[in-house]
Amino acid sequence: MEQAQDFLEESEALAEILCGLADGEFDQPTQFKGWTVNDVLVHLHYWNRAADLSVTAPDAFSDELNELVKALGGGSLRDYENARISERGRALLSAWRELYTDMAARWSKLDPKLRVKWAGPEMSLRSSTTARQMETWAHGQEVFDLLGAERRETDRIRNIIVLGVNTFGWAFKVRGWDIPEHMPHLRLTLPSGAIAEFGEPGGAGSITGSAVGFAQVVTQTRNVADTDLVVEGTVATRWMENAQCFAGPPETPPAPGSRFRRTG
Fold it and tell me: What pLDDT is recorded for position 120?
């Protein structure tokens, strides 16, 4: 399952820029809701661990999910995750790396069609792996932005593009809107220069530009106005202004200019 290798490489790209940080630097706040670098890694490590439980011990995963739901009745997801993961700083970095490396090696040998439990509907192992890559890429963005580093993107981002395309209807449904009959036509340029196209030209409009820009919009790491995307048509515009490729309640995308790579 090549997505396991993509998940590994995505995680390693983030780990590479964190290896030079001292323990105290993991407490730096990012542009994403004030999350610190520690918060980002706690979140990634907690949900990697949960995803692995869904494969290796489904009943234990269900128990953990029940505990999480009960805890959210009197607290926040952020507080719960931080209570469940004890490591911080470089110890957290090490624990996160050890788990994702082991997961990628084991998952690569499993049937991609294996059905696994999750917080929402169950999904295939392939989809679960792509979700872990997407989370790593998306939450990694605030870390790259904080540290003023530019991520070396590769065509593995296509997995996130496909996830964004597959959740076209979700972006409308989660807000209680009617799902448009047709998806806009997408023509996106991958980091290699290859072109990825989805949908059919027609009345739903079009979206053209970089695959990275599209991924940033559907993961809500950038406002569409801060990308190179050219959006035409009512449906395409509404989608890009409210895209959300992740589960949970409707989230408001970042305001224009609020998420950027720091310089100097």
Answer: 82
Number of independent structural domains in the chain: 2
Instruction: Dig out the tokens for 77 from the structure.
Output: 């997801």
The residues, ordered by sequence, that sit 6+ positions from 28 with a Cβ below 8 Å of its Cβ are 36, 37, 146
All residues at 6 or more sequence positions from 42 whose CB lies less than 8 Å from its CB, including other chains: 81, 82, 85, 92
Residue 121 binned pLDDT confidence (cut-offs 50, 70, 90) = confident
pLDDT at 226: 98
In a shared domain, residues 119 and 44? yes
Rounded CA-CA distance 64/184 in Å is 39
Share of the chain above pLDDT 70, in %: 100
- The whole-model pTM stands at 0.97
Which residues make Cβ contacts (< 8 Å) with residue 143, sequence separation at least 6? 14, 17, 18, 30, 37, 40
Strands (E), 15-134: 115-116, 123-124
Report pLDDT digits (tens) over 185-216.
Answer: 999 999 999 999 999 898 899 999 999 999 99
| Contact predicate 186/216, CB 8 Å | no
| Residue 212 buriedness (CB in 10 A; 0-12 / 13-18 / 19+) | buried
Task: Tell whether 176 and 94 lie within a shared domain.
Answer: no
Residue 253 covered by a domain:
no
Residue 165 falls inside a structural domain: yes
My answer on whether 102 and 42 are in the same domain is yes
Range of the domain at 198: 157-242
